[in-house]
Amino acid sequence: IRELKLSQNMFLFHNISDDDLKYLYKKCFAFIYPSKYEGFGIPLIEAINFDCKIILSDIKVFKEISDGHGVYFNYESPEDLSHQIINCVSKELDNFKINKKVLDKYTLSNISNKIVELY
Predict the structure, then answer these.
(1) pTM, two decimal places
(2) What phi-psi label fits residue 64: left (phi over 0), alpha (psi between -120 and 50 degrees) or beta?
(3) What's the CA angle centered on 77, arms 75 and 79, to 5 degrees?
(4) CA distances from 96 to 4, 22, 38, 49, 119 (A)
């Protein structure tokens, strides 16, 4: 970040409060999730809830959570990620937002029912 002189434009946070996290979701230009391996992806659920523009690694769990309605990039290709970021910045496209209806399957009652079914 220092070498590329990006310190004015990039911020790294650790152990932030829930209120600060909510503020960041509300104020971010886009939520980018460049994960190679992910068990579930709670930050993705949070980003959808806050109606963020979202760019995701092209991995199975993210496609499952977003019902295949996300903007994806090949996690092994920095060029592909760059292309999606440029598209996100240069265009006002709704396809960078995932419909909040996908959150219906992650309500507390739905999750509780699934856990009960498992047991």
Answers:
(1) 0.81
(2) alpha
(3) 130
(4) 27, 19, 20, 14, 37
